[in-house]
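fold description:
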Amino acid sequence: MSDGTIPSGSDPGNTGRYEQPDQKDAVGILKRQWHVLLIIVLLIALGALYLWKNNAVNSTREEVRAQAARVIAERNTELLRLVSVPLVWAVRGEMMRGNYDQINQYLINFVREPHVQDVILAKADGVILLATNKRLEGTPVTDSFPASVLQVEKATVSSLEGRGLMSASPVMGLNRKLGVLIVVYAAPNTLEISPRD
């Protein structure tokens, strides 16, 4: 075996140290294909940036929706109170004249407006005098509404569980309270905004 050939895998001048041919090939491939590696790194960075921005946009969208819902609820409350005042003035005038047919016409016309569910006129003693839902007439107002509506001193708007907003306004005569006008309003869901994907 001493024919002068060196067995493969051994280096006579470099005893004890062997280079891995796989490492040499991997480094060589990376040196030759650096632009492919750079493109892959950039694609991963762009994907991460897209996910981060998408998350930021979604959270901002939810914040804007919540703020818009609050503003709309406040505006609905203010406008319902504002609309109830002239109706109370008209009802007061007709109530003092004893013209209940005209009051009934006011209520019927008012309930035809969008999202108005019920309009009720209760006497000062708590019995419902006129209502757009005729089944309520002659019944105590406390059967359908909170007892606090009989004690209101000015037009107030509150939430009515499961039915929307309720405006309760006193109908005042010259020297005494004649009754209470109640308007039930189901606020529309105005936040039906679909995200653009």
User: Anything to note?
Assistant: The chain has a mean pLDDT of 83.
